[in-house]
Amino acid sequence: MNKKRLIVNAANCHKGGGKTLIHGFLKGASNAIETLLYVDHRLEINFPISESIKIIRTNRFNRFFIAIKIKKLLKKNDKVIYFGNLPPYINFNCDNVLLQLSSRFYVDSISMKGFKLKDIIKIYLEKLYYKLFIKNVSQVIVQTSTMRDKLLESGFKKKISTWAFDDLGNQAHYKNSIKKKNTFIYVASLLPYKNHKRLLKAWNQLKIQGICPKLYLTLDGDSFLKKWIKNFVFKNKLNVVFLENISREELLFKYQEVEVLIYPSLFEAYGLPLIEAKKYQMQIIASDLDYCWDFIEPDYFFNPYDVQSIVRSVKRFLKTKKDLDVIYKPKEFFKKILDL
Hints:
This protein is of the alpha/beta class. 33% of the residues lie in helices and 20% in strands. It is built from 10 helices and 13 strands. It has helices at 16-28, 66-73, 117-133, 145-153, 196-208, 224-236, 248-257, 272-279, 307-318, 330-338; strands at 5-10, 34-40, 53-58, 79-82, 97-100, 139-142, 159-162, 180-186, 214-219, 240-244, 258-263, 283-287, 300-302. The protein has a 7-stranded parallel beta sheet. Helix 5 (196-208) runs parallel beside helix 6. The protein starts with a strand and ends with a helix.
């Protein structure tokens, strides 16, 4: 009888959430099964891993041929897992071909307004690829019940497992860490659906009202949105601190001192910072959308399409004095007219 092996294609995961996912997978792996793991040559692995894992590094060009290599070495009892959202383009004729799906683009729709043309083309091509080859997997792993429901709505009829995990360990010793009062952080990539513009417009409205809480904002890469953000912040002299190209370790340290995670994103499959925030004993002010309620219950929430709703939610947290409109009695109203 052939010995069982686990063959993992994670060649698309080397940064951001993908990197976090693979690092967590490696830390959780045991010696119970031989594992072949295809990864991008840029993926950093700076911690000890199981001796049963064989790392095979590849580049962007060679990614295409990984499926062919897997097909050749595949044995009857092997299990295959594809990380990175896209299924294999080859039918492996294997009962255990799993896809870890963490992109909502393939099973849901969102406005492409604000996306670069090349990104729109890339998303549509990947969505087409997904639809053509999803038949080649026997099971899909998602992280939330929202993603499971979206996958079912898309017509997927095979097995779906809702398995989420994190790589944060036990943060109980941070319960007594000193939080800087009235500090907020938004951790997000610079994509249109992350809703940075409405968040900063809300911060500007707060400033006009004399309310200036500090907002830490992660900024990666170089894009038109990044330029807009910087120009808007400097022009309006907002109390915003940029965390540019911050490392994972630096981010986790920042979580220890910040009081609130604010999360106005319009579209998420998982929303990892929400999980991280709860682990680090932060308050959460988030969009009142499905993904925000899968693992947590926000302390405050808002309509992410409405700047004033974001403003009101922040003010509720800050417990600012409410400046409500006055309702006059008829005699008072009449007197107001006479006093004109």
